[in-house]
Structures are given as C-alpha cells and as structure tokens.
Amino acid sequence: MPVCNLYLLQLAKSTDAHSFLQQLKQTPNLQVIVASRPRHVVIHPNILDNETLTKTHWDLLVLLQSSNPTPFNQLNHHITNTYKLPAGIPSKLLSNYSTRSETLKSEASSIPLTRSLDKILHSGSKSTSQNLEVSPSLLEFMTRLEKTHKGPVTMLNLLHFHHPDGKKSYYQYGQAFIPVAGKRGGNAKLVGNVVPAPAGQKDHSRGDRKKTEEWWNEISIVHYPSIRHFCDMLAGEDYQAINEKYRLSALRDTFLLCTTEFDVEGLENSKL
Q1: Dihedral of CA 243/248/250/252: which sign?
Q2: SS3 label, residue 43
Q3: Which PANTHER family does the UniProt entry name for this protein (predicted)?
C-alpha cells in the first residue's frame, strides 16, 4: 500500500499559495495528489492537537506521493508551520484518482439538493457542529463562502477511534454513508490508514505518541458539489440516523476541515 504524506502548511505572509504550488510541482519524484485551501474548521478536536490544528492559520493542504524524504527542501523558507500525517492509501484509489476527481467536479453543478436544509433554516439549527449537525456558525460560513465560491468543497477528516471497536463501527458508517451522501453528490475520494513515517522521514507531528490508541488512525478526503450540498446532507434525517447509529459511537476524537481545491477556485482567488 503506497504511503502518502498529508500536510497542512502555514506559509510566510509574503508567499503566494499558487506560486508555491507551481514550484512544489517541479520537485523531482513528487506527485501532488490534492492541493486545497483551508477554509473553515467544522469540528474541533477535543483531545489531539486542538491548539495546533484550530488556532494556526493554515494556508495550504497538500497530499503528496514522493520518494523524496524532504519534499519542501528548496521551499522551507516559505513555510512557517507544518502539520504532517503519513497515510497508507490503497493503490486502487490512487491509480484512477485524477479521473474520478475530475468527473466529480465536472458533474457538481448538475447535482440537485434534497431540500433537507430548508426545514433547518425555518425551524432553527443545533447550537454547535461538534456532532456533525448544522449550526449557526456553519450556516454563517456557508453564506460567506457562497459569496465567492459556489462550487465543490473538499472535506478533510482526521479520525481517532475508540479502542477496540470504533473502527468496525466507522466502517459500518462508511457503508451507510455511500447512498446517503451519494444522492447529494458526496463521495469519499480517498481513505487511508495513518502509519509511522517511512524510514528516513521525520514523523514530527506525532511526537512521542507511539501507540495507535494515542494518535489519529485514519484520514479521509471527501468531495461535495458545494458547501450547501454538505449542509443539506447534515440536515437530512437519513444522514443523522447513520451519524447517531454508527459514527458518533465510533469516534474518540475527530477534526473536520472544509477546504476548496485550487483548480476549482480560479486563479483570481489564489492570492492569500
């Protein structure tokens, strides 16, 4: 199973994200699989790295496949902070990822809403999104984002399971998620198990937390046709049924970050 590295990067104030990416793509033996702009923390972690993940202004999310143990070697002077997770991702997901991702993006504008969100907008939302429900802060973010970007969003999930049965319960959630999210255009594009860094590469974000019970267990990168489609799903009774039955009991901790990929933003928004 190929090991990819997920990075959250905070860039120097003078650094343009698009220019940084163009330079990064010129690095030998490196493939940029995902490149997106962090937009909004939907769920804050309660246990793992809350301060680092939620208080740092992250400018860039990249998922890299590289044989180079120091992919940012020539670009380190542009980076002020880094969060890294190595993840083993099945070859079958990586082999056709580009084609699948482009298809999802091209079809996004044709995916209808279920109008589940209308009820929430009229009757009121939950106070927080910590249990993956529609909240005032999420609705405010939706309104703000739609002023400049009505296209696809990419959600980063970091998952820390209850031991020993959380992973099994989350698998059941994943199976139930496919049809529920699918009718809103949602698609888990990439899923991977967090692994120790390969020999010769630093595992600096993990630090001395060696046991799997003390660290993130999985990552997932999920596509939605728009932020409104994502909120429409959360507002649905069908989604909340599987959320309550499988997901909430599976997770000891989680981090959910909404991002927008650069190729669907347009260059006019690439300046940070």
Answers
A1: positive
A2: strand
A3: DUF1330 DOMAIN-CONTAINING PROTEIN, PTHR40257
Q: Mind giving me the DSSP string for 210-265? A: -SGGGS--EEEEEEES-HHHHHHHHH-HHHHHHIIIIIHHHEEEEEEEEEEEHHHH
Q: Which of 84, 29, 88 is nearest to 61 (CA)?
A: 84
Amino acid at 7: Y
Pairing of β 30-43 and β 251-261: antiparallel
Amino acid at 268: E
Phi first, then psi: give them for residue 113, nearest 5 degrees: -85, 155
Radius of gyration of the chain (CA): 18
Q: Is 185 left (phi over 0), alpha (psi -120 to 50) or beta?
A: left
Q: What is the DSSP letter of 105?
A: H
List of domains in the chain: 3-269 (3.30.70.100)
Asked whether 83 and 52 are in contact (CB, 8 A), the reply is yes
Spatial CA neighbour of 239 closest among 183, 155, 171, 163: 183
Whether 191 and 34 have beta carbons less than 8 Å apart is answered as no
Cβ–Cβ < 8 Å for 223, 152: yes
CA distance linking residue 160 with residue 194, whole number of Å: 10
